[in-house]
Write a structure and sequence with these properties.
single chain
């Protein structure tokens, strides 16, 4: 009987390979996905704090003249310095009394790299508005 069915049990091997592959993908989603969530939260916190720090850069001349506005160059520098100190990369833009900070990066995967996903993108942003005399 064995001579007539030389491929007996091959379905079990294929099922084992498929189950192992599915398990690897699920494990990668849990582990690398959790690391991505942590990295995104850290990036969002850094962007928010950098925006608040930059929005505090009110121009001294504008405060004395009664027209509050953010000193754009100083705000960009303070926001960039905060991001650098936090180990993040991003951009700081100033529009009137509002500062927007965007953090960009990538997370190197551990388990998902086995199936060809070597990194995952991180893109978080936050805004802060300077508190001025005209702010309600």
């Amino acid at each position: 009987m064995n001579a007539q069915r030389p491929d007996q049990g091959s379905a079990s091997i294929w099922a084992l390979l498929i189950i192992a592959g599915a398990f690897t993908v699920l494990l990668g989603l849990v582990v690398d996905g959790g690391r991505l969530v942590d990295a995104c939260l850290a990036s969002a916190r850094a962007a928010g704090q950098a925006a608040r720090t930059a929005a505090d850069a009110l121009s001294g001349a504008s405060v004395r003249s009664g027209h509050d506005y953010v000193a754009a160059a100083q705000a960009r520098q303070r926001g960039s310095d905060y991001l650098r100190a936090a180990g993040m990369h991003g951009t700081v833009s100033v529009h009137g009394a509002t500062v927007r900070v965007t953090v960009n990066g990538t997370l190197r995967t551990g388990i998902l790299s086995v199936i060809g996903i070597g990194s995952l993108p991180i893109h978080e942003s936050a805004t802060a508005t300077a508190i001025t005399e005209d702010t309600p």
